[in-house]
Amino acid sequence: MSQPLLRIERLALALPEGADRLYAVDNVSYDLNVGEILCVVGESGSGKSMTANAVMGLLPTGVHATKGRALFAGQDVLAMNEVSHRALRGRRIGMIFQEPMTALNPLMRVGEQIAEVFEAHGLLTSRERRERALALLEEVRLPDPATALRAYPFELSGGQRQRVMIAMALALEPELLIADEPTTALDVTTQAQILHLIKDLQARRGMAVMFITHDFGVVAEIADRVCVMREGRIVEMGSAREVLDNPQHEYTRALIEAIPGDAVPPSRDDSASAPLLSVKGLNKIYRSSGGWFQPKREVVALDGIDFVLGKGETLGIVGESGSGKSTLGRCIVGLNTPDSGEIRLNDVDLRALQGRELREHRRRIQMVFQDPYASLNPRIRVGMAIAQGPIANGVSKVKALEQARELLATVGLDASAAERYPHEFSGGQRQRIGIARALALDPQLIVADEAVSALDVSIQAQVLALLDRLKREFELSLLFITHDLRVAAQICDRLIVMQKGRIVEHGSATEIFLSPRHAYTRELLAAIPGRHGERESVAAAAGSA
Amino acid sequence: MSFFRRFAQNRGALVGLIILALVVLLAVLAPFLYPDSPWRMVQRPFLAPGEMAGFPLGTDTMGRDVAAGLAHGAWVSLLIGLISTVVALAIGVPLGALAGYFGGKIDDALMRFTEFFQTIPNFALAIVLVAILQPSTTSIVAAIAIVSWPPVARLVRGEFLSLKHREYVEAARLVGQTHRDIILKQILPNTLSPVIVLASLMVATAILLESSLSFLGLGDPDTMSWGYMIGAARTVMRQAWWLSVIPGVAILLTVLALNLVGEGLDDALNPQLARQR
Questions:
Q1: pLDDT digit string, tens, across residues A413-467
Q2: DSSP states along B173-240
Q3: What ipTM does this complex have?
Q4: In chain B, which residue's Cα lies nearest the Cα of A358?
Q5: 2.130.10.10, 3.30.460.10, 1.10.3720.10, 3.30.1490.20: which CATH number matches B3-275?
Q6: Of the candidates A367, A369, A392, which has its C-beta nearest B178's C-beta?
């Protein structure tokens, strides 16, 4: 076997004092060969990005290597001085980041940013740089590359920006490409395109790719070999086939099971129940008022939305960013006001109510928010955060706090949590607190807006199970808004697929997954990374050829 | 890490705190150290510091004890600085909170009102107000408060604008909390850290403003203040420079101490920003 391109040998990276563990990564060794895609998988805090950062010399202050070596083409990059390390970065090792908006300079045109890569290494004349930039944008298949060269990052979509990042990383034809969660911030259909592009470029150029991700679906899509990390250690390593089909370590198994790779929902009892919420002809247009020099802009967020949600039912609203799904949720709970249309709860039109009566009905609809870190007031104790709803509605403080403790127990937290502040809890625990807060007012409907998308997969599964259990216990209806079809498949009875403010398809979850009628739904389903059905059909096609 | 340890990490802040503590001590002890009125003539005029035992800082043009004036002046300066800041906060915080929280027309109206005060030069307005109201401690406090609340309102409004869209505020709206509760319990506690930092700097500015007014002879005629001492000594600057310099240094140290403390508070209240340095 030839010498590997990148060899990590018993690497240990020490965290600063006072961190929750001693080492960010401990005794990590792996090889990356030329022309290979290695996926490093792990949940947040597993140390999966740290090794890559060490190779690039991007370790955060306070973190430093204490043991081991990182050999790139035979040279230890950890022992290198800054000058020779800089010569390596960009030229021989390229990197792409998670958030393409913040990784690009917002005030520089795309073409200049790509040209800057050559400039930093003192290569080519400025004319040649521009030509190369154009060629690169063509290679990453940006539509209309000549215009894109002159565009600012904010004029491009998320997927296009990520293509620009890839073009920059590829500019000097590196032998190794490090991709740190490059598709996490993107919609599923865009993610599928970017994964395809990376795989294609890798094959064409014979690069080695280190692909860091938390998503086993992505792994199934792209990896040759997989390295699973947990709390700074490697728990399992092997070829993608081996690890995915026959995981040895129970943690790997748990991770793989936690994502419904097949994305086919279990069939549910879909007998019609009495309607709880009915929405008719809902419209909402966002207007920016426009200044002296800019025209007015209108964005149609909701366009004639109709649906009915039964008692005890879970309805999923699925769509990509900009589809209006969040606006719909916010209109239903009353955080946004629709331009026209009807929202009826228990056959009472909420839009016609006012003041006290409206408050009385509103509390029947509660919301669980997306970001577990922003949805709890950092200066209010958890118990009070849950109790404040009942208190605002006239329950005595003592009684409300008592009830808050009970609710904490119901969502699986210790009752003593009531005395603590939100920052003492992890993301998953905070989301449980958010759910307890929503339950405190004894609602009939809970709107969960991307309630699990900020969480790790294993935590996601727990929170989904909790929601499902509470739904039965408290006889709730659930409106589940998500961009992730796999999550929707796990919990929803019926689904609504939204695109550009319209409902393009609705039906039972099983129907939508097994026989989608609308082209957009089919596109969304095909884009789910790591679907077994697709892989088998590809294999079958390869077999028959 | 505890609040005080974060504060103490900034050496300058610690020095500032010590100076400030000494000034406060001086102000509190003034009636015991110098029970007589600081206006009383006790010796012959123009005694240089150290020239006669019992008058460590000498006497002024009228034979009054400079040390006594300094001690009693500390009390006046701190008191006016603190009270006028409290009054300015009492005007600025509610206006800023209402403007930021409700937005729209209320915001427009309140902010135009604020701008009205911001367009007039601070010191000129303060002079006019004191001159109209007759110089007294109350009118000086009022004048300083009236010229220094607009930045508070601006700051609080900005904080409210960004905080009112936080998810926890929306959650509070959904559970039916009243506007009053949301403003007082949800948002206001989260705006306090920048306001506290600003307030510590405002005390310093207020002390400077009071000194400037007294220097111009617009101070309360019954109270000895540092600004008055400098103003009274300016005609004899060449014969007895120390008469201007001693109260000047006192003002300098106090204002510097307050600024250092303000910076330390900023570090301690916003640990994320402080660590980057």
A1: 888 888 888 888 888 888 899 999 999 988 999 999 888 887 877 788 888 889 8
A2: HHTT--HHHIIIIIIHHHHHHHHHHHHHHHHHHHHHHHHHHHHTT-S-TTS--HHHHHHHHGGGTTT-
A3: 0.76
A4: B176
A5: 1.10.3720.10
A6: A392
